[in-house]
Amino acid sequence: MSLPGTLGIDFGTSNSAMAWATPGDTARLIALEGEATAMPTAVFYNSEDLSTHFGRDAVAQYLEGTEGRLMRSLKSLLGSPLLQETTVVNHRQVSFQDIIATFLATLRERATRALGTAPTRVVLGRPVHFVDDDAARDAQAEGALLQAAYSVGFEQVSFQLEPIAAALDYERRLSRESTVLVVDLGGGTSDFTVVRLGPQRMQQVERAHDVLATTGVHIGGTDFDHRLSLEQVMPLLGYRHLGPDGREVPSRVFLDLATWHLIHRLSTQKALTEAQALWTNYADVGLHRRLMRVLTERHGHHIAHAVEQAKIRCSQFDSDAVVDLAFVEPALAAPMSAAALREQLDALFQRTVACARECVQQAGLADNQLAAIYLTGGSSALRPFQRVLQAAFAGVPLVEGDLFGGVASGLAYSG
Ligand SMILES: Nc1ncnc2c1ncn2[C@@H]1O[C@H](COP(=O)(O)OP(=O)(O)OP(=O)(O)O)[C@@H](O)[C@H]1O
Ligand SMILES: [Mg+2]
Predict the structure, then answer these.
(1) What SS3 class is residue 319?
(2) Average pLDDT, rounded, for the chain
(3) Closest CA to 171 of 148, 146, 219, 204
(4) Strand partners, 374
(5) Per residue in 18-62, pLDDT tens?
(6) Which mutation among 107, 218, 312 tests ligand 1's pocket best, with the greatest number of atoms within 8 A of CB?
């Protein structure tokens, strides 16, 4: 029996969520891990007992030091040549496309458990651009996600732009007609839309004419973490360190370590051998020993996680924070001041805000025609970003929304 409703799946770079809506009803977010309705987009292959884990469970297994491989930021691989590359996990050769399918299969299983029967009609979210300025690779990325969804048993699959989904969710809270700029700043992408919303418009089936413009850019929280890790933490392992010949240590290993979706590359024997050979490039071999400890003990994701946590603390309390690296070496830590956060991320904020500006321009509106700027996505909570955005749209009220569930609900409504 097929259920008369739509499952919205927000397959996010950092977190995923799902919601279920039947015509005329309020969407309901599906509990994915206990009560939690959002779960980290993470897969852990435990090599001690060959089991596979997802979400918080996957992250916890890794942080507890269980032997195995953690995969994060899987969505960042869509549209990249790495997608079809294979890697060995638990004695099996799998492609990253397979790993994405495994994650979607788990989402489907959990939705089926919550609904009592398997959903058939699915709306998947997608960013405005999976890949910037490359329509062919962008289409490839969507195609790969579609194929993964079919391969795990979903039958009717369509796509909706994530910022439009966020807008449809926000619309439920509006009591009068307004034109808003929706800002969805997530882990991998920043997406914008200018839309006309309102209780009367909500009743209409055809909404395309209410969407005045959409824009997007491949910048998100994982890029902020990348920048901060390179500036604050990687120098402790030898990034930009000068060797005896006065030249910098080759940077590749640090760039991979600071990039969520590339960290897994450093767990191969080949990567370890290459890193071992770097010792001649160091004047201070203590830094090289530390790098090797990080690689052999597989602290890469732990460092990324520590940087992310420090970023969030720094933003939330608008005060200086510390990246605690005691798991690498007793008392090792990197400072992260509120000023450093602001300065190091400013160029990324400026590009993001320029994309928001372009969206309003494409919509043909002046700022004073916007009733509000609606913020969603985890990174939209970053205070220094909000300040840059507010400065660019002086006088337009910022409305903070549902950070992690709004897109999934809106996708379910789009069905
Ligand atoms: N309070 C906070 N302040 C700043 N950043 C935060 C906060 N909470 C979460 N983040 C960041 O938000 C990002 C995740 O947001 P979200 O779950 O909306 O992304 P996503 O939907 O997985 O990604 P995308 O939509 O780009 O595919 C992470 O980079 C995380 O570090
Ligand atoms: Mg998102």
Answers:
(1) coil
(2) 96
(3) 204
(4) 182, 399
(5) 999 998 899 999 999 999 999 999 999 999 999 999 999 999 999
(6) 312
Q: What are phi and psi of 181, to 5 degrees?
A: -100, 120
To 10 degrees, what angle do helices 383-392 and 300-317 make? Answer: 60
Task: List the alpha helices (DSSP H) in 268-374.
Answer: 269-276, 285-296, 300-317, 338-362
Nearest residue by C-alpha to atom 17 in ligand 1: 15
Q: What is the distance between the alpha carbons of residues 399 and 325, in angstroms, rounded to a whole number?
A: 36
The Cα–Cα gap between 276 and 292 comes to 7
- Collect all residues with Cβ–Cβ distance below 8 Å to 285 and sequence separation of at least 6: 279
Is the whole-model pTM more than 0.90? yes
CA-nearest of 188, 189, 196 to 167 is 196
- Closest protein CA for atom 29 of ligand 1: 221
CA distances from 392 to 37, 219, 339, 386, 395 (A): 33, 18, 20, 10, 9
CA neighbours closer than 13 Å in the CB half-sphere of residue 369: 11
Which residues 6+ apart lie within 8 Å of 298 measured at CB? 267
Q: How many CA atoms lie within 13 A of 183 on its CB side?
A: 31
Q: Which residues of 46-60 are buried (b: 16+ CB within 10 A; e: fewer)?
A: beeeeebbbbbebbe
Query: Which residues lie below 8 Å from residue 253, measured CB to CB, with a gap of 6+?
Result: 266, 271, 274, 275, 278, 291, 295
Judge if the beta carbon of residue 15 lies within 6 A of ligand 1: yes
Spans of all domains in the chain: 222-342
The pLDDT, as a whole number, for residue 1 is 54
Residue bearing the CA closest to ligand 1, atom 25: 186
Q: How far is residue 122's CA from residue 341's CA, in Å, rounded to a whole number?
A: 39
